[in-house]
Design brief:
Layout lengths: L8 H9 L1 H11 L1 H10 L1 H19 L10 H4 L1 H19 L3 H27 L7 H23 L22 H26 L4 H20 L3 H26 L3 H4 L8 H27 L11 H25 L8
Keywords: Membrane, Transmembrane, Transmembrane helix
């Protein structure tokens, strides 16, 4: 069968499909060294993983939205309304306390991460009919991502999504871990059997879709359930999410478009343009994190600014606008326009 690559086998493998497999291999081979990294080089791991991948992937969205000539004009309400809504919503949540604010943002982030895996699965299954095979794939993606999060809610973890105790309010729920573990195992088994049966029956094997689902199972299970380590979680969570997203944006919005379609963005289409593209998103990411560090966190560096609580209730939601806008916009910008019959 013709494989449904987004760009080609080589690009898809290295930048979209391989991250969870490669990172997991590194983790198993160098567990002691990773612990040393966490203890002795926390600034550099933060800079590389959080700033240059996690935050940077948020700004790669600009190349599909605000940087595209005519895009904002076509959907003004969406592109101006979402940031405004994000700030207003953030301010409203902050009135209930910073923990409520960060808990809500963490849940939004989790939903965004889950939906990205589902979205990639749909891309790689785009040539397949809407039958029970695809339904099982969809259920598998959700089980691969939802189960580890439900497990996290009920089990003490040595890491956070944003802040300490962000999911503590969910610990009051009845203990469901045994039940969901059984359901998870059943769904995984059914998906494996379905995949094997499909290969023997049809002789067709969708390589990228299968790798995507398998990688999702591995990265979420080992990152959240199997290991209980902050850096391991960050490695698997951030790299497996951020790198594929950045790659998808570049492939779809720059690489696969003609120069006349790109207009001023055509400068990013060359080999040098790839580095320029990376430089732009890293620049935005670093600038945002400098603001966070100086004005709010004061963890990695500080200028000894003192911000009052009255100001923070407006400032923190404002700093979150790019991130929350990214989560919300993603629900719109990747949808295919409906065909007019």
């Amino acid at each position: 069968m013709k494989q449904p690559w987004i760009h080609n086998a080589k690009t898809d493998w290295w930048f979209i499909l391989s991250p969870p497999f490669l990172i997991l291999l590194v983790i198993f081979l160098f567990q002691k060294q990773i612990q040393g990294l966490e203890n002795n080089y926390s600034f550099y791991t933060w800079l590389f993983l959080i700033v240059f991948i996690d935050v940077a992937h948020v700004y790669s969205t600009l190349f599909k939205t605000y940087f595209v000539k005519g895009e904002v004009q076509k959907r003004k309400l969406l592109y101006w309304g979402i940031p405004a809504l994000s700030w207003i919503l953030g301010i409203a949540l902050f009135q209930f306390g910073s923990l409520v604010f960060w808990s809500a943002l963490a849940l939004a982030a989790v939903f965004h991460f889950i939906r990205q895996q589902y979205g990639f699965m749909r891309i790689y299954a785009r040539f397949e009919p809407n039958n029970w095979n695809k339904k099982i794939d969809e259920i598998a993606v959700y089980s691969a991502t939802v189960y580890p999060m439900l497990y996290w809610f009920k089990t003490p973890r040595a890491f956070t999504w944003f802040v300490e105790n962000e999911f503590d309010w969910l610990k009051n729920l009845p203990d469901y871990t045994r039940l969901i573990t059984v359901i998870y195992a059943v769904i995984l088994t059914v998906w494996i059997l379905k995949t094997v049966f499909e290969v023997f029956k049809t002789g067709k094997f969708n390589i990228p879709k299968t790798a995507l689902i398998a990688g999702t199972y591995l990265s979420w299970y080992f990152g959240i359930v199997y290991f209980n380590n902050d850096l391991v979680f960050t490695f698997l969570n951030v790299i497996s999410h951020g790198i594929p997203y950045i790659a998808l944006v570049y492939i779809r919005e720059i690489r696969q478009k003609e120069k006349h379609q790109l207009e001023r963005l055509s400068v990013f289409k060359s080999v040098l343009g790839i580095f320029l593209f990376i430089g732009v998103i890293l620049g935005f990411a670093f600038f945002e994190e400098v603001l966070w560090e100086v004005l709010v966190w004061n963890e990695h560096f500080s200028l000894d600014f003192h911000i009052s609580e009255n100001v923070l209730q407006f400032l923190v939601p404002m700093l979150v606008v790019p991130q929350l806008s990214h989560y919300l916009l993603d629900g719109f910008i990747w949808k295919k326009p409906k065909k007019v019959s």
